[in-house]
Amino acid sequence: MQTTFFLLSGATVALVVGASITMPRNDGYKIEDLGDGIFTASFSEGGLVNVTRIDDIKVPVVTGFLPRIGPTRRDIPITRFGCYRESVNQGDWENVRTNFKNFCDGGAVIPGGGLQYAVSGKQVAFACSWGGNNPCSGGEFDESLDYINRNCGGWYGGWVDMDSWAKQYGMQQKGEAICGKADRVQWPKL
C-alpha cells in the first residue's frame, strides 16, 4: 500500500488544536500523478492530504453477459451539476468507469471530508463526501454519468452534487481539480 502526503495549494489551514478541516468546496483537489489505480484521500489534522492507493486498475472482462452487482438504479437527488471543458478519452473512460463502479459495489465508503477516485490513462472517476462517511454505489455512479452525458453532451466530463446526501460523483480528464466548484460551468438540476 502506497501513501503520499501533499499540501493543497491555496488552502487555508487554521492552526488551532482540535479544529476540524473540511474538504475545500471552491478550489477542489488537484490529483497528483501517482499512476493508474484506485485511491482514497482525506485531510490530516495538519492540513495535509493523505492519499492511499487501494488497488490497481484491472482490464475489464468483455463477455456477452455481466451480472449486475450492487443496488438497482433509482433517482438520485441531484441538486446541481457542472460540465468540464475537455472531452473524455473513450477507452480510458470505459476502463476507469468499470473499475470505479466495481470498487464502489464492493462496499467502499467515501470518507467524511474526503474522496475516493480512480485513474486510468487520462481519465479520473470520483466520489466526494463533504458530510460524514458516505457509501459509494456503482448504481449511483452510473446514474450520475448518464445525467452528465445527457446534459453536458456525450464524452464530456462533469459532476453532480447531491446536497441532501452531502456527496458528489463525477468523471473528467486528469489535471483538473475535483470535488470543488470553481472554474466550471454550473447549472441547477434541469
Defining key terms:
alpha+beta; 9-stranded antiparallel beta sheet; 190 residues; disordered N terminus; disordered C terminus
Q: Report the strand count.
A: 11
| Separate helix tally | 2
The SS-based structural class is: alpha+beta
Amino- and carboxy-terminal Cα gap: 42 Å
- Percent helix, as a range, is 10-25%
The strands making up the biggest β-sheet line up spatially as 1-3-2-6-7-10-9-4-11
SSE string, helix = H, strand = E?
EEEEHEEEEHEEE
Integer average pLDDT: 71
Main sheet, how many strands, which sense, barrel?
9 strands, antiparallel
Radius of gyration: 16 Å
Description of the structure:
This is Ecp2 effector protein domain-containing protein. The protein is α+β, with helices and mostly antiparallel strands. It has one domain (3-58, 75-188). The chain has helices spanning 90-105, 138-152; strands at residues 3-7, 37-43, 48-55, 80-87, 109-110, 114-120, 123-129, 134-135, 156-162, 167-173, 185-188. Helix 1 packs antiparallel against helix 2 (138-152). The longest helix is centred in the middle third of the chain and has 16 residues, at 90-105. The relative contact order is 0.22. Residues 1-25, 61-73 and 182-190 have low confidence and may be disordered.
